[in-house]
UniProtKB/TrEMBL annotation, chains A, B:
Catalytic reaction equation(s): 5 isopentenyl diphosphate + (2E,6E)-farnesyl diphosphate = all-trans-octaprenyl diphosphate + 5 diphosphate
Cofactor dependence: Mg(2+)
Key word Magnesium present: yes
Top-rank EC class of the record's enzyme: transferase
Functional description taken from the UniProt entry: Supplies octaprenyl diphosphate, the precursor for the side chain of the isoprenoid quinones ubiquinone and menaquinone.
Lipid metabolism listed as a keyword: no
Name used for this protein in its record: Octaprenyl diphosphate synthase
PROSITE patterns (alphabetical): POLYPRENYL_SYNTHASE_1, POLYPRENYL_SYNTHASE_2
Family of the protein in this entry: Belongs to the FPP/GGPP synthase family.
GO MF term list: all-trans-octaprenyl-diphosphate synthase activity; metal ion binding
GO biological process: isoprenoid biosynthetic process
Source organism: Phaeovulum veldkampii DSM 11550
Domain of life: Bacteria
Amino acid sequence: MSLDDKAQKPHDRLAEALADDMAAVNELIRTRMASEHAPRIPEVTAHLVEAGGKRLRPMLTLAAARLCGYGGPYHVQLAATVEFIHTATLLHDDVVDESGQRRGRPTANLLWDNKSSVLVGDYLFARSFQLMTETNNMRVLEILANASATISEGEVLQLTAAQDLATDEGIYLKVVRGKTAALFSAATEVGGVIAGATEAQVQALYTYGDALGVAFQIVDDYLDYAGEAATIGKNTGDDFRERKLTMPVIKAVVCADAEERAFWSRVIEKGDQHEGDLATALAIMARHGTLKATRAEALAWAEKARAALRCLPAHPLRDMLDDLALYVVARIN
Amino acid sequence: MSLDDKAQKPHDRLAEALADDMAAVNELIRTRMASEHAPRIPEVTAHLVEAGGKRLRPMLTLAAARLCGYGGPYHVQLAATVEFIHTATLLHDDVVDESGQRRGRPTANLLWDNKSSVLVGDYLFARSFQLMTETNNMRVLEILANASATISEGEVLQLTAAQDLATDEGIYLKVVRGKTAALFSAATEVGGVIAGATEAQVQALYTYGDALGVAFQIVDDYLDYAGEAATIGKNTGDDFRERKLTMPVIKAVVCADAEERAFWSRVIEKGDQHEGDLATALAIMARHGTLKATRAEALAWAEKARAALRCLPAHPLRDMLDDLALYVVARIN
């Protein structure tokens, strides 16, 4: 990939526009993940933080604050807060999923142990909490507390909703918010709040982050059935094999006849899967047009995100956020 | 045990004096541990919360607020906050320790799975965080954020400090604060802060909770070597077998000659333990008087807790807190 191509990505343009702020965020993260007496903490954290995640969430906070004209110092605290919450949830997710790889490296629970992942995750939650209190702004605390509750509630829900054909799109959306959208929307909303934006602007920033996160996750779930391995970096059908109830399947279950219902019950609820079942699943989805409908929903959420931006001041960062919403669904266009 | 005996315990007298407040706390806990869509959350939480823990931490908060003359509603929020943090740490501890029993019942990680314990623990942390923001008091948020960081830092420290003969009393104290004293001191301190107590009173409440927690833990660690199975409800020598560096051993390592050091290195660092090693350990401790010295430290911390109370207004609750400090060390008198 040439440098020019790279410069086209909205994420990279955001990183360039916010370079000074991001340098401050990275410095703050480095300082605050330290622990004088428990070197295990920075070891585990650095393994993850320095693995080169995209730092999308802190950039959302910085962009939101800046495009609302913020000139104070606290957007840096909040951006670091959001990244700490994200890192803590990754550490706990890897324990929950018994994962072996994250960001192309062995997971912390594999390199150290589950204990370290649980406790260092807790430490990062506590650190994020210290960071946000430094802003002295009660409203951002409420927003981040609510997001934290939505995240963990969504994760517990996912534990019980998987393999259950009664899972509907309402529950799916809660799981999606827990996995992705709750922290995206909190990231953008606190940026607006700390900048003293109007209520309408704060609401618009929330809607943008929420819709961007939902679109992002639906695209992921769509590609798990419709994508090419080369595009999505993993094999199609992973969700099928793991018996996850994602949007394409939920839509297919709703309009299933008796025979199809028996099929879904066998492969998803009972987990009794044989060769050819994924092809059958895809054929059923094609018959009901559920992949097409899922794709349309992803595009609609991306448009919702873009529409929300219109309430915000004209600003180069606003344009980049608009491009980001387009980019999230570009993989399915 | 007769009812009269029971009434003698300071803990039970506190429960009686704070009965109305505790009823409100229990009701708030019941309401807030609910989750509309993820029934696994209240299932797991109820298993632990309703197992009949002593609710000592919320009572410390209520007592501190009341004896400083508080008449508002937020001590109830803070007491529930403290209990949620405690319950969350228990859920995560059981995963970390791979425990099978807690409060005489199978642990949640055994009844459900480690995933549920990790995620429901996270949910309770998030809920505690929502509860405390309702007080609209930035200082209590800072105190509880700092306590959360101390707790998880202490737990990580314990992972690495165990089996390491270089662990000194400074590190031991940090582990002890993480295990017990940090939440005790936060519980009493926020009670004073929400009541608008003077700085001196708030500091005294912090010192009381901290010293009470440290005394409590040292007594536990002392009895693990010096106690009778009937008194402590478990066998002596558990810490020895688990190669934990607690105060009696740390003091013995400091004054060990070459032969003793080789012994400690073999049994604690290498974990190469044989029959008779516990008796040898006890003989070495007796030679250096480390159990006696440990006992003296527990008594000194209890006295420190009692002394701090003198800065607080005369009040029946103050007398009960004084009795509580005596009661904590009564097992070693």
